Amino acid sequence: MPTCPKCHQLIKAEATTCPYCRCELKAYGHPGIPLHRATGEEYLCDTCTYHEDDTCTFAKRPYAKECTLYSDRSQQFDKTTTKRYGLGWRHSLQLWCQRNQGLLMFSGLIGVSLLVAFYATRGR
């Protein structure tokens, strides 16, 4: 069972507030939104990935003691160890065609127009 970060009493895992000290455990009282808290005098921003790459939009940045978006930079996985699997050139071409249908239709329309113009001037 987890403990309350404020009074250190045992609490239920699904609890949104501590029944002993009324400390809020989940953000906005919603059980699906974790609320990260700083320990001691440190701020969460000092060890946050979003603060490091300057993508954080939290209003209390860089002095946040509580945050819902906190991402510990020491817990990040190493990108060099992830393995990328190729999908093959046929699948890549199919995905490209799906993403660029408008461009392909426009190119086809231009091609047909040029063919019509070519045959119209050739017949004269």
TrEMBL record:
The chain crosses the membrane at residues 102-121. It comes from the Bacteria. Keywords: Membrane, Transmembrane, Transmembrane helix. This is Zinc ribbon domain-containing protein. The lineage of its organism: Bacteria, Bacillati, Cyanobacteriota, Cyanophyceae, Coleofasciculales.
